Amino acid sequence: MSGSSGSPTDYSTAVFTVPNIITIVRFLGTPLFVWLVLARHEYGWGVFVLAMMGCTDWIDGFVARRLNQTSQLGRIMDPLADRVALVAVIITLVVAKILPLWLLLLLLVPDVVLLAVTLYFFRGDAGLKVTMLGKTRTAALMVGTPLLLLAKATDSGFAFWLAWAILGAGMVMHVIAFAQYLVAVLAKHRELHLPAAGPAGDIQGRP
User: Fold this and answer.
1) What is the pTM of this model?
2) Is residue 2 part of a domain?
3) Cβ(133)–Cβ(177) below 8 Å
4) Can you give the CATH number for the domain in which 107 is found?
5) Residue 1 has pLDDT above 60, yes or no
6) Which of 2, 111, 112, 174 has the fewest CB atoms nearer than 10 Å to its CB?
7) Higher pLDDT, 82 or 47
8) Cα–Cα distances in Å, from 41 out to 100, 152, 187?
């Protein structure tokens, strides 16, 4: 990540920054996790890789603020790395028959709808800030999935039920966060396309 605070003008155009390199490392952890779980059935090591990926998610933001290396590329890469990792992890666990298919669909459908609306109205990034609910949702899902994998590796009933409690809360927050982002995107689109009002409240350019 290259920081989530500040206005867009605060971001630099730098590419090869320390936090961006850390984010790239997080990207590389995703295929490693898939290989460990599906090819090697090493669930314990899979949990370890997810834990390291979670650490880098915090570290890159800390480094970006500490070294003042916030960048436009990092602002895009950081949430993208989180989303790619989350979707890949859940797909992997569905293929491994650890998670049900409906949970994957519940995760993907809102994301696809939001992406389609954003691309249609803004042809890309709508420039919305990540909300606290969105961050909490991602954290819950990224904690619940490795915990479920750990329950599989240790055959722990307590870990299994705790994992599902966290995942359930994460999915509820996911749906609410989707609704919030969708409303924000539509509101921003309306705001950008409203005709400007003159000093007396009349529409500018109106005779």
Assistant:
1) 0.76
2) no
3) yes
4) 1.20.120.1760
5) no
6) 112
7) 47
8) 18, 11, 46
